[in-house]
């Protein structure tokens, strides 16, 4: 008798499960803006930064570049099928507001917007006093 192989369902790449809810992390520092998109479980679906958007040097820290970077991420999100998102903003940079404005303008339903910037509870030890 011949051995028969069990035939498993072979799915094509186009039949990925559509993700309806996601989390957008905006990390805005003094020199760069990084936008990361993940599902609610925390698995990263897409990320982009000012450098990957084609900007170099001092232009990376501008609000305009943060807007372009977020717009690139939003186009990818719409392609993935995400309809609702929570936004976590971190950092003191100039691109915070521009990135959030871009997300709001894109028509995505925002569940909440949260500032998760870390705050020191006493900080680092200051340098010793200068003796002249």
From TrEMBL:
Query: Among its keywords, does the record have Transport?
Result: no
Q: Which domain of life is it from?
A: Eukaryota
Coiled coil residues, start to end: none
Q: GO CC terms for this protein?
A: ribonucleoprotein complex; ribosome
A molecular-function term among this protein's GO annotations: structural constituent of ribosome
Identify the keywords attached in UniProt to this record, alphabetized.
Plastid, Ribonucleoprotein, Ribosomal protein
GO BP: translation
Pfam families for the chain: Ribosomal_S11
Membership in a protein family: Belongs to the universal ribosomal protein uS11 family.
Q: Which HAMAP family match?
A: Ribosomal_uS11 (MF_01310)
The entry's protein name is Ribosomal protein S11
Which species is this UniProt entry from? Answer: Gastrodia elata
